[in-house]
Records
---
Amino acid sequence: MSEISNPTVASALSEPRWVRWSLILIGLAYLSLVVLLPLAAIFTEALRKGVGALHEVFADDATYSAIILTLTVAAITVPLNLVFGVAAAWAIAKFEFPGKSLLITFIDLPFSVSPVVSGLIFVLLFGAQGLFGPWLAANDIKIIFALPGIVLATTFVTLPFIARELIPLMQEQGTAEEEAALTLGASGLRAFITVTLPNIRWALLYGVLLCNARAMGEFGAVAVVSGHIRGLTNTMPLHVEILYNEYNFVGAFAVAALLALLALVTLGAKSLLEWRYGDALAGKGRH
Amino acid sequence: MTGIAVRGVAKDFAGTRALDGIDLDIRPGELLALLGPSGSGKTTLLRSIAGLEPLTAGTIHFGGEDATGLRVQDRKVGFVFQHYALFRHMTVAENIAYGLTVRPRAERPARQEILRRVDELLDLVQLPGIGKRFPGQLSGGQRQRVALARALAVEPRVLLLDEPFGALDAQVRKDLRRWLRDIHQRTGHTTVFVTHDQEEAVELADRVAILNRGRVEQVGSPDDVLDHPANAFVAGFVGQAVRLDVTVEDGQVRAGPQTLATAPPGARPGPAALFLRNRDLAVGSAEGAALTGTITGIARSAASRRLEIRLAEGLPPIEAEVGLDFAAARGDVVGLTLATLRLFPRDPEVGGT
């Protein structure tokens, strides 16, 4: 839709050439300043002292455990939100029930709340001085300043991604196909697996990728609940900050570069999916 | 062949009554149309028979067996949805085979048998060789046929179709009507279809059930409902009639200052609704005619001319059909005779069409 293919129409609708070129240049300059330049800076800073220095950074146990922790958190958080997201979207898109709009509002809440506040909520609930703190301490369960707290905070922050991706699609698709499956004798579960899931698979993958990107990159909420214990509760974004504050610029930028690389891979996969997904929808989708 | 008995069926949607005590007998093997304006509850009734809507009250029997509490999966109905609801990610063959492949292993036919059945059904719906295509690659009429094949694959006890031709253009619709009639004759399924198109209903169905505001107004053959409408609603809804609000007085039917005709014997004096179809009016010379009107419009159709005639100021125009050789111009005054009087007492509560 954004492209105008007919040349006569294009010239009739376009601004003069110089206006077009200045607009394009302004756009490019803005993009370079805000996105490309910082990204390039991360990689050049990381490589400033050569590949050998990089090796040293990643040989460090603290860095290694930060990477493992980040991957662990993402590996727990994404499946949790996958299940919740599909269940919530299914309920919202296919059924009418009281409190539906309230549920939608709750799903959106993590988008509008500052991540720091999100982290703080869990400290207030599960921290030493928190609501459940004494009970947790008495039973020797550690949530805050430990893996469960980081997972909780990350799950909260990334809660909307998959559900939000699925709800509009599932609402548009309606319930007729599922009803058709039921009249043909399929059980509810069977209809879900053979009809609903295939219809949402691209959107689902897309949501998982977005959720994963955010889960690996989350800083604010995790910073509050993690306690920054080196080698134990430091995720990659937190580790970047620590290294930077210690004037270990190569280390900081090296970890940052790895994080950026993960994000770039995710984005690449996302674009690939968008291309496939759009194709799937346009080609044999809607009727 | 299975008949369906609907008894006292009611359905509420969040406080509004969609079905209000429906009693309906659908005979084994018949093709029945549920006809009504939008919001009359016809689709809700169809979905209730299929088990897609839980009932608020009443029972539904399939051939003597109480199906009221039966899950939709166990009712063995073939349902064709208004927008076909084909599984968009499956091929046509997979769509048709779906009802067979989801059966428990013990009841599932062998793979070869399923493939054979799919081919057989594609032949039946006159779409051989399109099994590998996806629904998105088919035209509306083809999708409709595939949807029907899919519904027939499970050998349903009854076949239910929701506005089967609603989303198709006029020519395809005509072809498919004839074709559905054909299929029905060959397979003999008890078939119920929903439509808001009275022409479609009377042309296709053995019997027509006319619904209005969640109630059945009349059930009968096309002849019954066209020639002997049970009430003012049916008279207004089928047969493309113009409604005139009239008064029956001193044995005469009057519309405003005009006397239209002599009232039929037994007509109740008082306000009444008169339904005029364009073939009910004989148009002739104004000379000596008891009733005259002025031509206000002429429209041509393939085999006739349709005249729009005004009887008197303040009355809605009525329509008459005349032969092509009838000489008439706008503004001419013509004489009119009412051949059939479809007269119903006007009850202000029920009067609406």
---
Amino acid sequence: MNGVQALIRSYTAKFRYGNSVMLRIHCPFCGERDHSEFSYGGDASIEYPPLDASAKQWHDAVFLRENPRGVQQETWHHVSGCRMWLIVERDTMTHEIHSVKAAHPELTGMLEGST
Amino acid sequence: MSRYSAWSVFKNGLTGQKGWERAWRDPEPKSEYDIVIVGAGLHGLATAYYLSKNHGLKNIAVVEKGWLGGGNGGRNTTIVRSNYMMPGNREFYEHSLTLWEELSHELNYNVMFSQRSHVSLLHSPAARDATARRYNTMRLTGSDGELWSLEKLKNTIPHLNYDNARFPIIGAAVQPRAGTARHDAVAWGYARAADSHGVDILQNCEVTGVTRQGSQVSAIETSRGTIKAKKIGFAVAGNTSRLWSMADLGHLPIESHKLQAFVSEPLKPLLDHVVVFGVGGAHFYISQSDKGGMVFGGDLDWYKSYAQRGNLPIVQDVAECATSIMPCLGRVRMLRHWSGVMDMSMDGSPFICKTPIDNLYLNAGWNYGGFKASPASGWYFADLIANDRPDPVIENMHLQRFEQGIIIDERGAGPDPKLHG
């Protein structure tokens, strides 16, 4: 398919369905796939504190969420594909996906080194 | 406001239906109110109504970014029940159900509350035991609940799939007083009743900012100008986190997820009850509206979203559930589906509470339970705002319960909001 056709197709798909009907996630290992192959993890911006941190710090990390309307970092697991965890930058209002990257780049490096 | 009655229907029938007045006013915002409720959904309107009715308060406004009842009040499956077990939830939802039973009289507006029974299908002896415990708890605390044998269930609802090898039906847990109501009528009824008590309902009035002065909020900025208020209540489930950050209050134990619902083409009378199918990965609930449409729904869309549009994998999931439990629906066409944005909380239970700001009050976190809860939610939120202290029934529905270890996790799913379906 040439670029013009692809553009028309994506435009008409947006016109007919909006962006939200089916997410397509570009897995860095497998290519672009329907989101039904993936399992949603959650907010990827959470940083868990050290094990001996205060109860308050743990409470905030486990229970509190920014919950933005707009772009957020989130984890997805390609559970019906390569089973790798990914970090996806997605808009929670338009569902547009801005970037996808491996959640564990060191693991990716090891896998690539082993081939 | 003139009362609706059989006589008024008769009289207007004879006079060409020309005698009806508009049901509520469309006032201009005043510059200051004693109490402003943000969100003219079912909870906000009910709160305003009970503030004026139960507590005799005046000078109240409800502001709404769109039209009243246009959010989740118009985006649900209209099911009303009280089969909750956890302390707090038990008393709260039971009170809500008793309010529903008199709501049409209370509001002088027919909300078409139909106590047609809520039938939860059982698929294993373990599920029957767990449910027996729940329904016995309900009976011991003044509610109603029954366990139906397979024979009784087959006699009552003969067209379920009783020949399912994967999930055989072995009986049902039933709450006879549960049922459905017409969701739009609930919004309109509360709006009309609140308006008749002098509440200003300000539609197309989106909050764009919250003005703080020290430990107080003094005003809200809206698309229709600045409105000062002595007390402010948030009742905007779905968008609570956004208002919370406008008030500069940090993060909440809430994620916004979307939930779809569906209605089929109208059919002749087919299903007299609310039927619920939930086992393993399946989650499905269905009833038939008075117009004949089969109204049904299932799980969340599984990822966070503020878009009021649903995705296709859940359409497929729900359709699979429908045809596996009621194969007779296999060739029924879908009329439309819609999606609402839920406040999914960290334990699946709501918040009706005070906040770190003295004169700001929060009503949020309704998960799947918002529609049925709306009368009691308005009742207790009004009481909280009027008396500045929570009633004992809602004393644990606050934001500190996670750090205090007194979570109200009806489903036992842990701190993952998408699992509290």
